[in-house]
Design brief:
Length: about 100
């Protein structure tokens, strides 16, 4: 049986196409849980008009389905609370600072 830790690890390998950073470090994953062979992931995006929504959702499904024991992925796009730069991890801030994106 797959554990939620393995799902989080897989999500940590999904990168935001705009920045060299995982969606986990960007703070875009709100929750991940596993029930049997089913993973449920709540994600958000940096804006409602994000042009990469479909691509990121596809990447998330692919990454989570690669986790041993997971055969189904349910994604829920969550807009509340809205994403803000406050959700970026410390590691994410260091990387984005290197690229001049955040202070």
């Amino acid at each position: 049986m797959a554990g939620v830790e393995a799902v989080w690890e897989a999500l940590g390998k999904v990168t935001d196409p705009e920045y060299p950073l995982s969606i986990v470090d960007m703070g875009m994953v709100y929750e991940a849980r596993v029930e049997g062979d089913r993973a449920h992931v709540d994600i958000t995006f940096t804006s409602i008009g994000c042009p990469a929504i479909d691509m990121i959702c596809s990447d998330v499904r692919e990454a989570v389905l690669a986790v041993s024991g997971i055969s189904n992925v349910e994604l829920e796009i969550v807009w509340s609370p809205p994403w803000s730069k406050d959700r970026i991890s410390d590691r994410g801030r260091r990387v984005l600072r290197m690229y001049g994106v955040v202070n």
